[in-house]
């Protein structure tokens, strides 16, 4: 029968408490500190470009302070318990040793054991001891007899070696590292209530909260109702204005404090009037609520986004903060939501319009306005003066302006003119330096063949200094020098492009003074069929274009011979007015009209009559005839 002993001194309970605290504190500390360090790292990666609009300083929430307080208290308790463990005095029970009782060394001979027993039994016999208490003498005498029995009796010796007791296994004592107070009857209701609170309430609550939160979102962190709305309402063709209306119907703008509030009604109406006036100023169509998405939260989001596009100042600080949150959410919703749906359908025009919405969100410039408005401190009044007095309308024109004329044109900005002039060169200009359209290993393109398109994209005026690999440099060089008729050169170029490893460098930060967040400058490659405005391949996101890049895509040629028109679009996701396109004509030849391929001289001589090869060939032919005869016989039987 087992007996249980509890930690009366509290020493072993300390080890138990330390173990539990470590299992709780280490994951909790990692979770809390990782979240804060991650947010701090985001703050540390501050935009390297000019930011006219900046994020407001985040207020430290009370919950964050409470978390640190609880975590600090837990580690303080851990240190206190650890100190008690270190300074505590441990008294381990002495293990009963029959040799020590008889005053012998382990391994003593039977004669020595017998002699020691006789001597001690005479010395500590209760009838002969005068100086000791009788009870103490009796206990000592019993211990001496027990030790003698353990060392001389075979059965008792075996029991001692197995159980540490010459009398055999009597009871098993098991220690529990808990104080007795925790299992006493008077404290059991409190403990049961605590267990019920943790297991019956807290654990289901947090598991349910996690499950509810994760099931509400897609893998791209977009609310499921939002994706359903996008799937049901996106179509082709669709205008840019209708796409913005669809974007404002996202459920994200109806939660987390971004939803419409009655107290905001007056401020939103005032902003609506100002947006309508800007529409008239630019000559755009009248601004009005969406007829399809009529919720007040959707209209609020639409007003705030158009305030961003037209640079309408927002006096209400709360609405201004919400606008910044909406802009960042909108970029994510368009990129990971609407663009993904459009590319799955293969809609070229819809995809390009969505990417232009991202440009508008990043730069705070409407698609119909001049790209010069994305320069710092440039507003519509200043732009109109520059356009009327200096005939300056676009970025490419501004880059080619002489320095003196450029300074004269931007003199309307006063002391901000130098900043705007320097920013002109920070806006990239992309070009398609080379295109190769070919079937690998063939001179012509035939129906249903696999066509390879190789493109070299360059940023005008940039130097290729970031690429150190000589192999990649050679590939980039050959991409521009390989001729369209060089079949072997094109095949080698394609194989080398396939072997190239992705560059570790990323595109630079985009100059976006009216976007509070940091934005990387990326590009999209869209190859479309001009006859039906459909994507030939899925659009490719280019995230490492610093000076130049070579890209290869493959697609299947049409099944009918003829001439086909394709268009390559390089679209920025950060800058307005930097997109380019190139027309490509592909001729699919009818294979029946092609000249015949030259015959290959198959110079394989017949084996000699007496050779081993001739005998082997004869045996194979004979075996084949036998097999055919057997097949015919079986057919006849059937």
From TrEMBL:
The chain crosses the membrane at residues 13-33, 68-85, 190-212. It is a multi-pass membrane protein. GO terms for molecular function: protein transmembrane transporter activity; RNA binding. Residues 591-638 are annotated as: Disordered. GO terms for cellular component: Sec62/Sec63 complex. One of its GO terms (biological process) is post-translational protein targeting to endoplasmic reticulum membrane. The keyword Ligase does not apply. Signal peptide: none annotated. PROSITE patterns: DNAJ_2. Its main location: endoplasmic reticulum. It comes from the Eukaryota. SUPFAM superfamilies: Chaperone J-domain, E set domains, Sec63 N-terminal domain-like. Residues 97-164 form the J domain. InterPro entries: C2_domain_sf, DnaJ_domain, Ig_E-set, J_dom_sf, Sec63-dom. It is found in: Endoplasmic reticulum membrane. Keywords: Chaperone, Endoplasmic reticulum, Membrane, Protein transport, Transmembrane, Transmembrane helix, Transport. This is J domain-containing protein. It comes from Smittium megazygosporum.
């Amino acid at each position: 029968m087992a007996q249980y002993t509890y930690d009366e001194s509290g020493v072993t309970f300390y080890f138990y408490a330390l173990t539990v605290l470590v299992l709780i504190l280490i994951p909790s500390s990692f979770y809390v500190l990782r979240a804060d360090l991650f947010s701090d790292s985001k703050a540390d990666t501050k935009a390297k470009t000019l930011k006219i609009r900046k994020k407001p300083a985040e207020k430290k929430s009370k919950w964050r302070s409470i978390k640190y307080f609880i975590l600090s208290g837990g580690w303080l308790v851990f240190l206190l318990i650890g100190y008690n463990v270190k300074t505590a005095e441990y008294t381990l029970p002495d293990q009963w040793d029959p040799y020590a009782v008889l005053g012998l060394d382990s391994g003593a001979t039977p004669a020595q054991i017998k002699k020691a027993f006789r001597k001690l039994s005479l010395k500590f016999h209760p009838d002969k001891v005068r100086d000791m208490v009788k009870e103490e003498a009796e206990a000592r005498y019993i211990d001496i007899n027990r030790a003698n029995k353990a060392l001389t009796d075979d059965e008792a010796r075996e029991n001692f070696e197995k159980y540490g007791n010459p009398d055999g296994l009597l009871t098993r004592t098991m220690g529990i590292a808990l104080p007795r107070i925790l299992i006493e009857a008077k404290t059991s209701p409190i403990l049961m209530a605590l267990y019920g609170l943790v297991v019956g309430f807290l654990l289901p609550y947090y598991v349910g909260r996690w499950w509810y939160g994760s099931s509400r979102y897609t893998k791209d962190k977009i609310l499921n109702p939002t994706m359903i709305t996008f799937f049901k309402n996106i179509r082709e063709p669709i205008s840019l204005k209708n796409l913005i209306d669809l974007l404002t119907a996202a459920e994200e703008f109806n939660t987390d404090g971004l939803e419409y509030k009655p107290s905001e009604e007056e401020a939103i109406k005032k902003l609506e009037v100002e947006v309508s006036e800007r529409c008239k100023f630019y000559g755009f169509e009248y601004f009005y609520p969406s007829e399809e998405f009529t919720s007040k939260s959707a209209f609020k989001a639409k007003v705030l986004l158009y305030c961003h596009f037209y640079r309408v100042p927002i006096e209400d600080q709360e609405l201004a903060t919400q606008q910044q949150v909406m802009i960042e959410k909108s970029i994510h919703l368009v990129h990971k939501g609407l663009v993904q749906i459009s590319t799955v359908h293969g809609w070229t025009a819809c995809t390009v319009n969505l990417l232009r919405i991202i440009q508008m969100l990043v730069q705070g410039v409407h698609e119909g306005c001049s790209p010069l408005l994305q320069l710092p401190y440039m507003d519509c009044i200043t732009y109109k003066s520059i356009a009327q007095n200096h005939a300056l309308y676009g970025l490419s024109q501004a880059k080619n302006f002489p320095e003196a004329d450029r300074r004269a044109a931007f003199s309307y900005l006063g002391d901000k003119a130098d900043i705007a002039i320097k920013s002109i060169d920070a806006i990239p200009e992309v070009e398609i330096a080379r295109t190769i359209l070919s079937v690998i290993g063939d001179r012509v393109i035939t129906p249903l063949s696999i066509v390879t398109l190789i493109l070299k994209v360059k940023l005008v005026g940039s130097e290729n200094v970031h690429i150190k690999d000589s192999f990649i440099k050679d590939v980039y060089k050959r991409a521009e020098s390989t001729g369209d008729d060089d079949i072997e050169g094109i095949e080698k170029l394609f194989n080398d492009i396939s072997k190239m490893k992705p560059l570790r460098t990323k595109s630079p930060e985009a100059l976006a003074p009216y976007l509070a967040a940091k934005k990387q400058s990326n590009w999209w490659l869209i190859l479309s069929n001009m006859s039906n405005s459909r994507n030939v391949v899925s659009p490719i996101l280019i995230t490492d274009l610093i000076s130049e890049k070579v890209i290869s895509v493959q697609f299947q040629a049409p099944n009918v011979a003829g001439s086909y028109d394709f268009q390559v679009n390089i679209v920025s996701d950060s800058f307005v007015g930097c997109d380019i396109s190139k027309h490509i004509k592909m001729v699919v030849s009818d294979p029946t009209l092609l000249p015949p391929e030259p015959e290959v001289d198959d110079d394989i001589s017949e084996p000699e009559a007496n050779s081993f090869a001739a005998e082997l060939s004869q045996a194979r032919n004979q075996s084949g005839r036998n097999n055919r005869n057997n097949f015919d016989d079986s057919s006849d039987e059937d």
